Amino acid sequence: MKIATYNVNGISARLPVLLRWLQETAPDVVCLQELKAPQEKFPEQALQEAGYDAIWHGQKSWNGVAILSKVGKPEEIQKGLPGNDEDDQSRYLEARVNGIIIGCLYLPNGNPAPGPKFDYKLRWMEHFAQHAAMLIASQEPVVLTGDYNVIPTELDAYKPERWVEDALFRPETRAAFQELLAQGWTDAIRHLHPTETIYTYFDYFRNAFGRNAGLRIDHFLLSPTVSAKLKAAGVDRDARSWEKTSDHAPVWIELADG
């Protein structure tokens, strides 16, 4: 089973790129972030024609997450984080697909930091950690994936010294991510590629992609029963080079059957 995550940076503008990537790589399940589209503007028909059933949590102009599947329609479990009802931003969607609980998330950026946006990011991470703890305690197979807007270590940033004061790399952010991992989650990319330079995001400016000046901020966290089946993980870098593409590249994992 192949599961992918992709911050599309506007699903209406990037639909041709998304459909091309789906056709070329054919993942079984896809989590999308940053739809930037209200609920009624989601391209459900185009994705159905591509072979994917979908559920989504849209929001006009900003945010938005979706789960696509060609192995049975996702059974929605949760929209938004439980216990975080006052949050009106579309950043979390959870479903059961082919026996696995899939959590698709678009974690707040948090800049400028310090400030209200950074405080919101840390509060969101706290709510997310509480929910993640409940999920891992359930001992069910769980995949939590998406754009975390977290640079976990210096290895995950081109010239990390430039990011010291950024919300994605501040000590509070990295500590919250490490506390999350300490619950028992496996960072799939780092588990299989512990020392490699791997980036998932490249700014549009200063030829960042051409210079491989990127960040690793799109992550797969796997519960123990899922991590035991992990066969492969990687990044579809080529998609980042396509015309009118997102500033993120798709990230994927492959799980053994059974």
Automatic annotation (TrEMBL):
UniProt-listed SUPFAM superfamilies: DNase I-like
Domain of life: Bacteria
Domain Endonuclease/exonuclease/phosphatase: 4-248
PROSITE patterns recorded: AP_NUCLEASE_F1_1, AP_NUCLEASE_F1_3, AP_NUCLEASE_F1_4
Presence of keyword Magnesium: yes
Gene3D superfamilies: Endonuclease/exonuclease/phosphatase
Keyword annotations of the record: Hydrolase, Magnesium, Metal-binding
Cofactor(s) the protein needs: Mn(2+); Mg(2+)
Record carries keyword Magnesium: yes
Family, similarity comment: Belongs to the DNA repair enzymes AP/ExoA family.
PANTHER family: EXODEOXYRIBONUCLEASE III (PTHR43250)
NCBIfam families, alphabetized: exoDNase_III (TIGR00195), xth (TIGR00633)
Protein name (record): Exodeoxyribonuclease III
Source organism (scientific name): Nibribacter koreensis
